[in-house]
Design a protein that fits this description.
Helix content is 41%, strand content 18%. By secondary structure, the chain is of the alpha/beta class. Strands 2-1-3-4-5-11 form a six-stranded parallel β-sheet. A six-stranded mixed β-sheet has the order 7-6-8-9-10-12, with helices on both faces. Pfam families: LacI (PF00356), Peripla_BP_3 (PF13377). One of its GO terms (molecular function) is DNA-binding transcription factor activity. Residues 5-59 form the HTH lacI-type domain.
Length: 333
């Protein structure tokens, strides 16, 4: 027999009917425990999963949308991050208003098929990913076969995945241009430069700085407050404080402000700070944080609309939202 590819093949190996295999994989109580365990072991061994999605589509829909946050690059990051909470809130409100339930997942990818398992679970009518992390290639592969998949993240020419997100390169450029207008020349980027969104922010920051004759250094750090704070503290302790700092997110920028305050570095007189996102807390820091705003309310609406179109079998396209510079006290001398 060739490699088992479906439930019928597993049924032959187990010596039972295809219906029994289907019931066993659905954990139906009519299947004896020993039989169920044998079938589950064979299914795992040969990586065969029930096409529950097809079954649910025959029943029209599940009435649920999955919301997942992949954390391949930042395993210590949490849903309590203000950016994620804000975007999740807008998405949840919009989906509930359309009559959908929500299935929320925080995913730390441990194997190549984590996304396949989510979209093939049969528990949702579609899946929204909040961020691409370091999983861009995996998302591309699954997007080729699974239409109701919408992603918050960067857009690349020719990509298969449908994305909604801000112009991160343009946002980074805005930050550099603003710092240059304040007379800042020794610039520092603080954050994780690897994930696509942050990489684009850094690239735009470098472009804007080069055009103004400035230089850019990178302080690579995880995006959690404690780790960002530790990185900036170490930099300051080494006696090298740049006069213009661009943080990859507002959360990181808040850690920058704290480290500077602890070291007695006056903001914005000695060092100016710009963040990214414009979360609610950005206006409450001391001094209030200058930042690059992403329109998360509009972005969430576009993601939901794109999802509804894909579920209905209609075409939907990616959208890149323009960023906006929000000037506050952390960069005004």
């Amino acid at each position: 027999m060739s490699k088992p590819r479906n439930l019928a093949d597993i049924a032959v190996l187990a010596g039972v009917s295809t219906a029994t295999v289907s019931r066993a994989l659905a954990d139906h109580p009519s299947v004896r425990a020993a039989t169920r365990e044998r079938i589950l072991a064979l299914a795992r061994e040969h990586d065969v999963r029930p096409n529950q999605l097809a079954r649910n589509l025959r029943l029209r829909h599940t009435g649920a949308i999955g919301l997942a946050m992949p954390l391949g690059h930042a395993r210590t990051q949490h849903l309590t991050d203000p950016f994620f909470l804000t975007l999740l809130g807008f998405l949840a409100d919009g989906l509930v208003e359309r009559g959908y339930d929500i299935l929320l997942s925080r995913v730390i990818p441990s194997c190549d098929d984590w996304l396949d398992r989510l979209v093939d679970s049969g528990r949702t009518d579609g899946l929204i990913l909040i961020g691409q992390s370091d999983q861009y290639d995996t998302i591309e592969r699954v997007a080729e076969r699974y239409a109701p998949l919408v992603v918050w993240g960067v857009h690349r020419d020719g990509q298969r995945q449908l994305t909604i997100g801000s112009d991160n390169h343009g946002g980074g450029r805005l930050a550099a241009e603003h710092l240059a207008a304040q007379g800042r020349q020794r610039l520092l980027f603080v954050g994780d430069p690897a994930p696509p969104e942050f990489a684009d922010r850094l690239a735009g920051f470098r472009t804007g700085a080069a055009a103004a004759g400035g230089t850019v250094e990178v302080l690579a750090t995880a995006m959690t407050p404690d780790q960002a704070l530790a990185g900036v503290r170490a930099r300051i302790a080494a006696g090298d404080v740049p006069d213009g700092i661009f943080a990859a997110s507002d959360v990181v920028a808040m850690s920058v402000l704290r480290a500077l305050a602890e070291a007695g570095v006056a903001v914005p007189d000695e060092a100016t700070v710009v963040g990214y996102d414009d979360v609610t807390l950005a206006a409450q820091t001391v001094p209030p944080l200058t930042t690059i705003r992403q329109d998360l309310a509009k972005g969430a609406g576009l993601m939901i609309e794109a999802m509804m179109r894909r579920i209905a079998g209609e075409p939907a396209t990616s959208t890149v939202l323009p960023p906006e510079l929000i000037v506050r006290g952390s960069s005004l001398s």
